[in-house]
Amino acid sequence: MDFIRNQLEELGMSEPSIGYLSNVIMVVLIALISIIANYIAKQIVLKTVHRIVSHNRFKWGHIVVQKKLFQKLSHLVPAIIIYYSAYIFPSYQALIEKAAMTYMIVIMITVLNALLNVFDDIYRTYEVSKIRPIKSYIQVAKIVLFIIGGIIVISSLIGQNPFIILSGLGALSAVLMLIFKDSILGLVAGVQLSSNDMVRVGDWIEMPKYNADGDVIDITLNTVKVMNFDKTITMIPSYALISDSFRNWRGMQLSGGRRIKRSIFIDISSIRFCNEEMVAEFEKIHYLSDYVTSKLKEIEAYNTERQVNRESNVNGRQLTNIGVFREYIHQYLRHHPKINKDMTMIVRQLAPEDRGLPLEIYAFSNDTNWGVYENVQADIFDHIFAVAPTFGLRAFQNPTGHDIVQLKETHEKEYVREY
């Protein structure tokens, strides 16, 4: 500043003009130095850092570059220059120092915020992040960071100790509790969800109350984001997963089997004892030949031992078409390549209804993929409906318009035949 003043005096300028012009020149010089320093920091230092990171075998280096951590940090350089140049302007020194310090605090808050994002992204590269997500904790840390940063900025501007402001916030605790109620509930819920391993990113959950049925794609401090199978997204409050009931299909996905539980309704009037012709046909069926042979021997030994009167089928034991059909379905499932043989496999009768006799298939496919599972289930029941007439059985269904038309035509033909 003295050098500039001397030069201006030699040029013959008056004192008021010298003071004003020297200040302007000094401001311009400081601005140029700050711009040059910022340019050097970004163009030289940052490029060097990026070059080192690009040749690093660790993935986290690229994440640091992507989040522009060092680029944000480079903004401190001009602020530091301005801060240490404030003494040149004694009248405005306090104001300049406060402004520069506030700017540096804001920059440090943004840098720390970016650093937290870097930690989160690095953590997500590991498989454990799906089991123990930390995004909710990162968000809590950000809230604390911004609160502390705001207090430091205010204390810097008013020239007071930050602890004085913190002590004054005690009276506002009730208001803060109300403002951050959802965040506090979300934090507690996040801890419970994580510690009890109740839900992970990638889990298929079902929560009818919120119309949620799909995969969890994100878990944050306040919400759990679910992408439904129709590609809509449902946002569920984190604490709702603690207070309400929901279904997690992870166990099914990890078990290696997905349950098939469906019934075919058999017309009860089609159920009867097997005659010799039916037995002969059943013996030709690959899955039933051994069963029919052993069952006939067992029945014959039973009836002979008890001297059963064979003149009536009611006496003793007899094969029924529904029993043979049930065994056929069981053998068919045992030989099906898409059925998990290590899990429960049952073909059972349920209580008769007005729609007929339910014959329930209870088994597990060995592929949990939704599309594959539906195809397997459809193929099995396609086959069951197709082979039912082979056993003299009819699948029940309510009369349709076509059935009524056929009945009418039959009656008309009979009427014409009679008259």
TrEMBL record:
Keyword match Membrane: yes
Signal peptide span: none
InterPro entries the UniProt entry points to: LSM_dom_sf, MS_channel_C, MscS_beta-dom_sf, MscS_channel_2nd, YbdG
Domain named Mechanosensitive ion channel MscS C-terminal: residues: 326-387
Family in the record: Belongs to the MscS (TC 1.A.23) family.
Annotated transmembrane regions: 20-41, 76-95, 101-119, 140-158, 164-180
Location(s) in or outside the cell: Cell inner membrane
GO cellular component, one term: plasma membrane
Pfam families: MS_channel_2nd (PF00924), MS_channel_3rd (PF21082)
Source organism superkingdom: Bacteria
Alphabetized GO MF terms: mechanosensitive monoatomic ion channel activity
Membrane topology: Multi-pass membrane protein
Record protein name field: Mechanosensing system component YbdG
Matching Gene3D superfamilies: 2.30.30.60
Source taxonomy: Bacteria, Bacillati, Bacillota, Bacilli, Bacillales
Keywords: Cell inner membrane, Cell membrane, Membrane, Stress response, Transmembrane, Transmembrane helix
One Gene Ontology biological process: cellular response to osmotic stress
Main location: membrane
